[in-house]
Every structure is written in C-alpha cells, then in structure tokens.
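Students often ask why inverse folding is considered easier than folding. One informal answer: many sequences map to the same fold, so there is more than one right answer. In these notes we will look at a single instance of the problem. The structure comes first.
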C-alpha cells in the first residue's frame, strides 16, 4: 500500500470515528433552548456560555446556571446538571439532554433542565 492510500485510509477512519462520537447534538443558544424546548425534549444540545451560579453535590449531581447573553429575564439562565463542575465565571461548552418538568422531590422542581451534561472549558 503506498503512502497516499495509507493517508487517505487514515483520514477516512478519523472522520468516521469523529462522526460516531459526535452524535446528533445540535448547537443552540440559551434562548433557543427555552424557545424550542418542546421540540428538543430528549435530544442532545450543545450550549456555550458563562457559568453564573454553581450548586455542587445536591442529590448526587451538580447544578450549574449558564448564560450566553441571549434571552430575556425568563429565558436567559439555563440550569444544567452534571457529575462534572466548573466555577462561577468560567466560559464553558456544555453538551447534555433537554428535559422538561423534572421533579426530584423535596421541592426541587424544574420546568427545563439540560441533564447528564459534559462540561468543557471554552
């Protein structure tokens, strides 16, 4: 096998393996997640934003609030849950699944969450 064929085969392998791990996640703004929440239920989304509040270790998960400058008073703060965490002020990229009307009991009710999220520094 010559070098060119080897490079092409390796490039194709890298492309296909990246696609397999990328899933069907779609990039959305915080406001878009709120506006499209019923269509996004159960789907994976990617959101970039700034961490504005962190509550770690509640019910074996961390709750982070992120904002990206979009939305109004009711649609500018998205709550995510994760086993990972970040600090207030961090710029992050979050990938997680949209959930509606989540009731954890004990007064913890959320009309909209992005759950089981991975958090990466931006």
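Output (designed amino acids):
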């Amino acid at each position: 096998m010559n070098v060119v064929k080897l490079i092409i085969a390796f490039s194709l392998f890298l492309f296909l393996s990246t696609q397999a791990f990328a899933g069907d996640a779609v990039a959305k703004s915080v406001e878009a997640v709120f506006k499209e929440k019923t269509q996004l239920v159960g789907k994976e989304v990617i959101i970039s934003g700034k961490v504005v509040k962190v509550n770690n270790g509640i019910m074996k998960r961390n709750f982070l609030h992120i904002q990206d400058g979009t939305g109004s008073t009711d649609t500018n703060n998205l709550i995510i849950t994760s086993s990972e965490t970040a600090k207030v002020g961090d710029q992050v990229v979050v990938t997680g699944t949209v959930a509606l009307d989540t009731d954890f009991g004990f007064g913890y009710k959320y009309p909209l969450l992005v759950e089981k999220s991975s958090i990466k520094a931006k």
